[in-house]
Design a protein that fits this description.
By secondary structure, the protein is an alpha/beta fold. It has three domains: 3-289, Rossmann fold, CATH 3.40.50; 316-470, Thiamin diphosphate (ThDP)-binding fold, Pyr/PP domains (Rossmann fold); 494-629, Rossmann fold (3-Layer(aba) Sandwich), CATH 3.40.50. The chain contains 24 helices and 17 strands. Bound molecules: thiamine diphosphate. The site of thiamine diphosphate (TPP) has 22 residues, from loops.
């Protein structure tokens, strides 16, 4: 086994091309086996095996800087940089991160998780390098999907202007997670498929290269001819216009060709783009056949490709999906908008049922938000289905275009709360804080799947501006679904458990945690009241005024950042009312980033568990009683 002997990039340098091919096959087998147990981003990594080998073979990491866009395709890089023994812990708590992670290795120089940042990062590093008078290479690897992101296009524009030495490797597999979309995608497809162009280009180049070296006017004419041929026939003309030297397209699984082109490109001055064609899922037939499904995959059986999934009530995403379809059947104004996540956001069926009413804009969260604003302006009911973490990208558009103009956009915010193995770049723990302070916004979160359906109906009925429903990346709790979706009065909370010893105000899945804590405290003779704060904005002010009068210890429980969350909103309300002395303890996500693991482990780490709540409440209630009565 060659792989056993590879512990750092320098171990590659003496290998021959056939040996590199052999190693590529071993790496594929390794990935297929390891990920069958841990799950992870299989298909993207199978596609970049030769590409990553070529990078480490030709260049000198960590002196030369490798920047992986998104970072989900960095597994091969991890294998080649001394981390292959940790793959059993991939994406697990305290284990190997599924993305690039600087604390893991000196070869990891730039972290991501969100897409389309690599070109800006590469440009920043190239600028810093030149200012410091250093000479290292900067190499960014970006997929055709991520290249469609607005940030990447902004960076392209700037890179072409500055003309710094940097290399962009465009890993073109025709796929985002779902099939890639957009004009740029069509352009790349054209390059890929236009074999006539390629052939003619090669033949002409060969012919021109045969012209003997001659001086003077004739040589100039020949050069000009080469140039014009290039512009007529060279496929990457768009990138050339952007100021890049374009190389390609290159077969990303042909080691020899790849090495040759990358080597050639590495000597060129100025920004270079190498267009590499790869097959997502290469070498594992189930993943090649359906790379959408195998982009990020749960554990599976290697032989059959059968994916092993835990059984349980449907996920919130599925409930959302079905509810939206039901509502859209009766209301033609409803359109669904997704920034490149039709599968993850549960919109595939919707798209099949209502052609033209499911709009995939590509990785373009900002564009999606403004587009929704304009559709709402024209009387449609756009449902912007987006993960909480990716909506961060569109904050300004939400403020400036949607909320300021008070438009009827519905936000279906998935993956709200902890997300588990994707970890700190993907948690949905900031949206309460970054949405609730925007004027006109209504923000809801259901305690169970039936309430999610009711909130979808509430949102569709609402005609007074933007309204958001956020829901977690977990299974529902298994409650029965009412056939009719009954709307909920805006701003009305619900007392789910009566009690007069203390109060827990909880939101979303934390309502269940609160009920479990209350159940534990019941054994101590305490009657804890549990309130479902299903509207984060507006608050149920009448209820809050009553709670202040009741004079009990309150815990606010939320799976979102403690800074600026529901607890903060309640404190702000009391402060504005001039009500002092309501004893409130906020338990939420602390002011630090929480790493990958299971959602359960992430909740345990941050104390969002029934045990912690019960313990806190015991201590707080004892202290409170002591203060009020002078007795313990
Ligand atoms: C801002 C943002 N939006 C959405 C995503 C979700 N996402 C992760 S990878 C990916 C597709 C990237 O496609 P591409 O760059 O072509 O890489 P491939 O997986 O095909 O190799 C998407 C949409 C993300 N990471 N960041």
């Amino acid at each position: 086994m060659l792989l056993e002997q590879i512990n750092e990039p320098k171990d590659l340098k003496t290998l021959s091309v056939p040996q590199l091919d052999e190693l590529a096959a071993e790496i594929r087998a390794f990935l297929i086996e390891k990920l069958s147990v841990t799950g992870g981003h299989l298909a993207p990594n199978l596609g970049v095996v030769e590409l990553t080998l070529a990078m480490h073979y030709l260049f000198d990491s960590p002196k030369d800087k490798f920047i992986f866009d998104v970072g989900h395709q960095s597994y091969v890089h991890k294998i080649l940089t001394g981390r292959k023994d940790q793959f059993d812990t991939l994406r697990k708590y305290k284990g190997l991160c599924g993305f690039v992670k600087r604390s893991e290795s000196e070869h990891d120089v730039w972290e991501a998780g969100h897409s389309s940042t690599s070109l800006s990062a590469a440009m920043g590093m190239a600028l810093a390098r030149d200012l410091k008078g250093e000479t290292n290479k900067v190499v960014a690897v970006i997929g055709d999907g991520s290249l469609t992101g607005g940030m990447a296009l902004e960076a392209l524009n700037h890179i072409g202007h500055e003309k710094k030495n940097l290399m962009v490797i465009l890993n073109d597999n025709e796929m985002s997670i779902a099939p890639n979309v957009g004009a740029l995608h069509h352009y790349l497809s054209k390059i890929r498929t236009d074999r006539h162009y390629q052939k003619a280009k090669e033949e002409l180049n060969q012919f021109l290269n045969k012209i003997p070296a001659i001086g003077g006017k004739l040589a100039k004419t020949a050069e000009r001819l080469k140039d014009s041929v290039k512009y007529l026939l060279v496929s990457g003309i768009l990138f050339e216009q952007f100021g890049f030297n374009y190389f390609g397209p290159v077969d990303g699984h042909d080691m020899e060709q790849l090495l040759e082109v990358m080597e050639q490109a590495s000597h060129v001055q100025g920004p270079v783009m190498i267009h590499v064609i790869t097959t997502k899922g290469k070498g594992y037939s189930p993943a090649e056949a359906d790379s959408h499904k195998w982009h990020g995959i749960s554990p599976y059986k290697i032989e059959s490709g059968q994916v092993l999934k835990a059984v349980g009530p449907p996920m919130y995403t599925e409930i959302f999906s079905d509810a939206l379809i039901e509502l859209a059947k009766k209301d033609e104004r409803i359109v669904a908008v997704t920034p490149a996540m039709p599968g993850g956001s549960g919109l595939i069926k919707f798209g099949e049922l209502f052609p033209g009413r499911m709009i995939d804009v590509g990785i373009a969260e900002q564009h999606a938000a403004t587009l929704c604003a304009a559709m709402a302006m024209e009387g449609m009911k756009p449902v912007y289905a987006v993960y909480s973490t990716f909506l961060q990208r569109a904050y300004d558009q939400v403020v400036h275009d949607i909320c300021r103009q008070n438009l009827n956009v519905i936000f279906a915010i998935d993956r709200a709360g902890f997300v588990g193995p994707d970890g700190e770049t993907h948690h949905g723990v900031y949206d309460i804080a970054y949405l609730r302070h925007i004027p006109n916004m209504v923000l809801m979160m259901p305690k169970d799947e039936n309430e999610l359906r009711r909130m979808m109906k509430t949102a569709v009925d609402y005609n007074d501006g933007p309204i958001a429903v956020r829901y977690p990346r977990v299974n529902g709790v298994g409650v029965e679904l009412e056939a009719e979706m009954r709307p909920i009065p805006i701003g009305k909370w619900e007392t789910v458990r009566e009690g007069d010893s203390s109060i827990i105000i909880a939101v979303g899945p934390m309502v269940q945690v609160a009920e479990e804590a209350a159940e534990q405290l019941k054994r101590d003779g305490q009657n804890v009241r549990v309130i479902n704060a299903r509207f984060i904005k507006p608050l149920d002010e009448a209820m809050l005024l009553q709670l202040a009068k009741d004079g009990l210890q309150i815990i606010v429980l939320e799976e979102g950042t403690e800074l600026g969350g529901l607890g903060s909103a309640i404190l702000e309300f009391y402060s504005k009312q001039g009500i002092n002395g309501v004893p409130i303890r906020i338990i939420g996500v602390p002011d630090r980033f929480i790493e990958h693991g299971s959602i359960k482990e992430q909740r345990q780490e941050t104390g969002l568990t029934a045990e912690r709540v019960a313990t806190e409440l015991r201590a707080l209630s004892a202290g409170f009683r002591q203060r009020v009565n002078g007795t313990a």
